[in-house]
Design brief:
It is built from 4 helices and 2 strands; from the N terminus they run H-E-H-E-H-H. A two-stranded parallel ribbon has the order 1-2. The protein starts with 21 loop residues before the first helix and ends with a helix. Helix 1 packs across helix 2. 40% of the residues lie in helices and 12% in strands. The chain is an alpha+beta fold. Helix 2 links the parallel strand 1 and strand 2. It has 2 domains: 75 residues, no CATH class; 34 residues, no CATH class.
């Protein structure tokens, strides 16, 4: 089992010259696997890692045995979420200034 850090996450540092998009992370993972001569993998990702895993699976289906996405960012459902609806109304609840706003934000983002 390999559990690599994404650039700018975990123990991996940050450099301004690196790129930090999910597609760039997936491409980096592919180069990493190629360097290790690993032909096929099960990819698992949480949050941003879920976006990376989905991108990897879609772009490298021959290298992907399975993909498990856990609360993946960048993946949209058929119906807009409560958060999507708020963003459409320019009512993004990430800036909290009261307990009531925090409780509302917590319900939107945690389970």
């Amino acid at each position: 089992m390999l559990i690599p850090d994404l650039p700018g996450h975990g123990d991996t540092g940050y450099l301004e010259s690196w790129t930090y998009s999910a597609p760039d992370f997936a491409e980096s993972m592919k180069r990493f696997l190629d360097r290790l001569a690993i032909k096929q993998v099960h990819v698992v990702g949480n949050s941003l890692g879920g976006f990376v895993a989905a991108y990897f699976a879609l772009n490298y289906p021959g290298s992907t045995l399975s993909a498990t996405l856990i609360d993946a960012t960048g993946v949209w459902g058929i119906e807009p979420s409560d958060m999507d609806k708020l963003v459409e109304q320019d009512n993004v609840p990430f800036f909290v200034s009261s307990r009531k706003e925090f409780d509302h934000f917590w319900k939107l983002t945690m389970a």
